[in-house]
Amino acid sequence: MRTYFNDLPKTALGASYWLFTVYLVLPLALMMSMSFKDANFIAFPIGNWTLDWYGKVLQDKQFIEASLYSIGIALATTVCATIVGVWIAMLVSAENIWGRAAIFALACLPAVVPGLINAISMRIFIRAVDIPTGTFAIILAHTVHAVPFVVIMVLTRLRSMPANLVDAARDLGADPFVAFLRVTIPYLIPALFGGMIFCVLTSIDDFVRTFFLGGYQPTLPMLIFAKVQGGMSPEINAMATIVLVVTTAVGLYAELFTRRSRS
User: Where are the transmembrane segments (predicted)?
Assistant: First the structure.
């Protein structure tokens, strides 16, 4: 009897975990199932199943152009956010820098500011400095939002780095820049890769900042939003399913790569 009561917290925790998993997965499963419905509307029962909606989406010129545009913005955002994030992380980890806590807090501020407030402030900023809405403005806003995540991941990795690695490189004649390239950067690869994947995924998924700062060319979230205004259909579910599968595969690969790099 005592063993039974001792196992109750563990059983309750396990049950709560699976209930939460079902809560997360069930809506996604319903959305994906509706993308196979052989009809122009979304409703149960599904009846006949078809792959025609996926063929239509993959032949949709707007979908392909919006996807390529989103990927291009995501890659540019990732490069910029990684460079800035690594620089800030190195600055915060340095011992002779005054105000490191304030620098870290300011760097992480965009991650805690609501997206709507961030988008409005960025819109005001680009108008003040006379930057037109469009690709550059979107990349700028996405970079500001992505930098905190790179900083946190890189800084966490830096704090676990043995100090004698850089010291050994310096003793062997390497200057600070060479030591950074040949010692620090290779050690940071798992954190950099994880941060870069996170930047790509958050940029592709970002709707609010793109809505306020975008030009005439729509990104993928903007295209899906525009189609939703005309009513839900299995075509939209097919688009969302393709995005979900691709982003999930990229995220799982990043997690696997990070674990292998740390082992």
Answer: 12-32, 68-91, 97-121, 133-156, 176-200, 238-257
- Measured distance CA(82)–CA(199) in Å, rounded: 8
Nearest to 136 by CA among 183, 196, 72, 87: 72
Q: What is the pLDDT of residues 98-142, one digit of tens each?
A: 878 888 888 888 888 888 899 999 999 999 998 888 899 999 999
**CB–CB of 210/221 below 8 Å?**
yes
Dihedral sign from CA coordinates of 78, 82, 85, 89 = positive
| Residue 242 β-bridge partners | none
In whole angstroms, give the CA distance from residue 247 to residue 253.
10
Q: Residue 49 and residue 151: Cα distance in Å, rounded?
A: 46
152-168: pLDDT as tens digits: 989 988 888 777 777 67
Q: What is the CATH number of domain 53-262?
A: 1.10.3720.10
Whether the Cβ atoms of residue 74 and residue 243 lie closer than 8 Å to each other: no
Strand partners of residue 37: 49
Task: Using pLDDT thresholds of 50, 70 and 90, give the confidence band for residue 263.
Answer: low
Domain boundaries, the chain: 53-262
| Cα torsion angle, 84, 90, 93, 97, sign | negative
Stated pTM of the model:
0.84
The three-state DSSP-derived secondary structure of 217-247 is CCCHHHHHHHHHHCCCCHHHHHHHHHHHHHH
Q: What are 76's two structure tokens?
A: 């540019």
Please name the amino acid found at residue 11.
T
d(CA 25, CA 241): 13
Task: List own/partner pairs for 2-7 with CB under 8 A and 24 or more apart.
Answer: none
